[in-house]
Amino acid sequence: MEEKIRRALYRFVLLIFILLSLFLLAKLFPYYKGMLVGVWKVLIPFLISGFIAFLLHPVVEKLHERHLPRWAAILVIFFLFFAGVGYGLYKGIPRLIHQLRDLNAQIPEFAEGYRNLILQIYQQTSDLPESFHDQLTEILYQLETWTNERVTMLIASFTGIMDVLVVAAVIPVLTFYFLKDIERIKEACKKLTPKRFHFEGKTLVHDISISLGGYIRGQFIVCLFVGCLSFIGFWLIGINYPLLLGVVVGATNIIPYFGPLIGAFPAVIIALTTSVKMVVYVLITIIVVQVIEGNLLSPYIVGKSIHIHPILIILALLVGEEAAGILGMILAVPILTCIKVIAEHIWRAKAAH
């Protein structure tokens, strides 16, 4: 009985100590924020390179098993990757830039169409009580405020990405050495880890690699398919800027649940400036693409590699959005996956003892 009380008291004191430490770190954050920003900027190319190496490692291993030297396998993958990306940029970027310029030139026209739409709504509801108009004005104001906040957040996210692109020249070099010297890196990590954790650590890394790697690779493939299908659908219904809108839908689809809504928003706004019929066509296109993605693409390409309840995923997405905007929502599920695998290992270790 005394042993249980002692353990409970120890845990309580430890919890208080952790909470006080977190409170102190939060209060002192302005003093070490600059240092953290500097360290983060230095680490960004290493983190991106490590992430790319993590995705490409299984392919390199498959080629290496076929008696192809590791350095040659990496160069083959690099050539195919950069050749494919280069060709895609060569064909797609001029059209994308043209559509972006066209869209920028027509923004005043879109604004005028939006004002006319609001005016029509007020005219058609002129017989309704004044309180209804007040509530409608408040709803429209909140909608405009929400849209401006999200657009600003999106631009800020892209600005951060552009900062990363400044150091993109070193990323292929780092990725090459990560892939080439993966065994040395594993051996170094093994030496830095106490021997009693070697087996558990190896199992943990393997499980994270299986769950996280399968999910991320699958999501990238699904996003590519969704972007292509959306582009084809938008092109068939005749909406303006089909390539640009297809890229947006495909890119935002990497965010579970909320991604399709974010991606559909620009298409619906542009369709509103054309006609109500075009809005209906856009919504039908997006619904059809999402049905194909939800029932055919994701189950077969991504599968159930993470095994996490949707409620936890939605909670993680909301926390990620609050913490880091769009980038936080993109990283929310991968981080949650790692936490889940680590928690399962801790639970199994406790159960074993």
Automatic annotation (TrEMBL):
Keyword Transmembrane helix included in the entry's annotation: yes
Location in or out of the cell: Membrane
Residues spanning the membrane: 12-32, 38-59, 71-90, 153-179, 220-241, 261-289
Domain of life, source organism: Bacteria
Keyword entries, A-Z: Membrane, Transmembrane, Transmembrane helix
Keyword Nucleotide-binding: no
Database matches in InterPro entries: AI-2E-like (IPR002549)
Signal peptide: none
Protein's membrane topology: Multi-pass membrane protein
Record-stated family: Belongs to the autoinducer-2 exporter (AI-2E) (TC 2.A.86) family.
PANTHER family xref list: TRANSMEMBRANE PROTEIN (PTHR21716), TRANSPORT PROTEIN YRRI-RELATED (PTHR21716:SF15)
The protein's name in its UniProt record: UPF0118 membrane protein YrrI
Originating organism: Thalassobacillus devorans
Gene that this polypeptide is encoded by: yrrI
